Amino acid sequence: MMTRCVVDPMTRIEGHLRFVTHIENQVVIDAQCSADMFRGIEKALIGYDARVAQQVTQRICGVCPYGHAEAAALALEHAMNLRPNANGQRLRNLIVGSYHLQDYLLHFYALCALDFIDITAVLHYQGQDAGLLTVRDWVKQEMASAKVFPAAPFLPRYEAAYCHDPTLNLSAIRHYLEALPIMATLHRMVALFGAKAPHPVTIEAGGVTTIPSLDSIIQFRTWLIPVAAFIRGAFRDDVTAVAQAFRPYFAEGRGAGHLLSYPFFPDATGANHAFAGGATLNGQYQPLDINKITEDSVRSYYSDQPDRHVKPLSSRHLTPIDWAQFNHERAQPNGKYSWARAPRYGGAVMEVGPVARIVNTYHAGINPAVTSLVNQYNQALGLTLADYPSVMGRHLARLFNALLILDRLEQDLEALVPDQLGFIEQPVPRNAQGVGLTEATRGALAHWIATDDQGYIQNYELIVPTTWNISPRDASNQPGAVEQMLIGTRIQNSAAPIELTRIVRSTDPCIACSVH
Amino acid sequence: MNSKRRQFIQRLWQIIVAAGAAQLFNFEELLAAPTAVNRPRLLWLHGTSCSGCSTAFLDIEQVSIVEILTQFVDVIFHPDLSLATGEQVIHILDHLTHHEDGFILVLEGGIPIKYPHACLMGERPMTDWITQLAPRASMLIAAGTCAALGGIPKMNGTVTGSMTLREFLQYKNINKPLVALPNCPMKPEHIVYVLLHQLKLGQLPELDELARPIKFFERTIHERCIYYADFQERRYAERIGDPGCLLKLGCQGPVTHNDCMRFGHNHNTNTCIRSGHPCIGCASERFPRQIMLHRYGDRRAIHNEFDA
């Protein structure tokens, strides 16, 4: 018997996501993801000054604004034929790198941990930790109250098989509480050189406008100490322990496993990156070729050129369908069902994110730190590279990314020169084009810009990590990456399909980014 | 009163002091502040938002967000925090619509009117959700520039017909107390202050004609700028990194009302101007403007530029 299982709204992700699955004999046989929010920012940028793209595109997302700031700056620098000086690059790395760490902690603790960890375990807590006692007493009080929704926002939840290990449950809940001030500290570190977080203003084409002082460098280092201890201690322990406790999840949510990444985290010259760009298709790595990137909108809520594979910057229009057409499309069996478009790489559906960065860098062999970390964990946990595109592989790869970026932050901070401007000024380029490639925590991010004869934006295009992951079907009717991850999943209880929400959350969706 | 609670109240007090609101409350009054019985209930929704105001809310430091959740407000639903997902959420919201009132509704992001399908939750447009839920609320908070003043979803060139929360209430003839807290993202101290004010004094703080608390938004960035003396002496920066007033590099400080120069961002770690960048006016009615970082001597117009 076939049942239909809908999760809408999907919470603890960024934005408005709906997914619909069809289940036969407890196995998902079909899945559709709908990105349910649209603002139309990329074409609205036409007519704004080229530098405005940096400030506006980062407001596409309040979770990964740093990625858009950097990609926009890189695109404009490409159009200007300009590279920041060493101090500018290092400042940018410190802002972007700190933000990556904040984003990994936000994703693991605030968004995902309570999908695995049993929050009600706190009721049995007997120790002296003030945070845990506060939560325990509060949950007890709430449960005893006459409230309609006691212990919100922690209840209600899907009642399912959570972690049974009382020690792990309690230590992870304690770290959940401790992670929040660590995340605020990381945002302060972003603000130190970026002015504020979310939405740091200082990353501009040409470098970073902040002049670092000895004081600010010392302050950054002081804040980095507890952050580093938390990431190398609590975060590492929790991710590893959850990975071991939920080992079958290395086989869940695999999808097609084709992996796309862009070069990320440059050294001071901008020439060498900590993470490699490239594409791994069927386990075979190949260098990046951005000319293979196209997008279509056959199943997306737009009326322009819906059946054509469109290359970036080839159209200045993106016309949404109206309310009546929307309702018509939603009623069709093969109608449009998402605001996200369908990007493809040489026609292939690609997964982007932490796994792509790790696996592609491993294959490219450019970073010995990546190679040794992967080898070490593969041996300890009995994994191969093929296990990484999976629910637990994604969580583990995020840990690797955090550990690697933390090392690089410490190095960049050491080399930063106080009282030296890291910004090179140039006029905005006229009649120029550029592309900026980087990685947000959730994956490969590209901006394309074209300017007019006065330096205003003539056209702008974004292809964003979650657009790759959450994309709808394309002109060849291939399901998107997350849709493929859901198909084939066995679920225990279609009224509480936690297997599916764990899969979707493992990709760290950002719907505001995906549609923009 | 146990010592744990007293410590919590002490840190709450620090926020009040940091927000410059010490004259409104005294510490003893706060000791009688929220208990399990009179805690305000909070419902947080995302319009066409980026979740930036939600992540900024998590950054509140003097009291942890967990203390806020357990001792200060009942967060009935928050899209990024709630374990409830899918139908459980719709059940909560429908229950609020039909059986509850008196909760505080926080909206982040704009409300698209012309294309209602540009913001959906449970297949229902945000226009429907707000129309149903706002009349049940005791007060509404427009969190951040998008909900308060228009911001990014309403920028020149967008087509969805985005409205601010205030515009939407007028459009639907819903009359409810409303506070607008612009800044991109919202400053977390501002919402904590508003909630405390409502809780303690049973009313909203004094507001200006755009529903912004006068306490935070009475003065412009420019009036309190560290470079105000340079401005008066006409010492202008000509390049990024120069000392002096940033006006000629496009600074929006003179047309942006907010308290950044007093209380900074991220626990007063920094401000845009202190970090060498002109104010981009992210709390202003006219955000985003056509040019933000303006090259000295660039002849292109600096005023708002698009033909309205």
Percent of residues in helices of chain B comes to: 25-40%
Overall 3D shape of chain A: globular
Q: Give me the count of strands of chain A.
A: 16
Enumerate the strands of the largest sheet of chain B in spatial order, edge to edge or round the barrel. Answer: 2-1-3-7-9
Q: Kindly report the greatest chain-chain contact and the residue count on each side.
A: A-B, 99 and 93 residues
Tell me the helix content of chain A: 40-55%
Q: Give the helix/strand class of chain A.
A: alpha+beta
Strand order of the largest sheet of chain A: 1-2-3
Q: Uncertain segments of chain A of ≥5 residues (pLDDT<50)?
A: none
Whole-number count of domains of chain B? 2
Strand content of chain A: 5-15%
Q: Give the number of DSSP strands of chain B.
A: 9
For the largest beta-sheet of chain A, the strand count, sense and barrel status come to: 3 strands, antiparallel
Run of helices and strands of chain B? HHEHHEHEEEEHEHEHEHHHH
Highest CATH level, the class of the largest domain in chain B: Alpha Beta
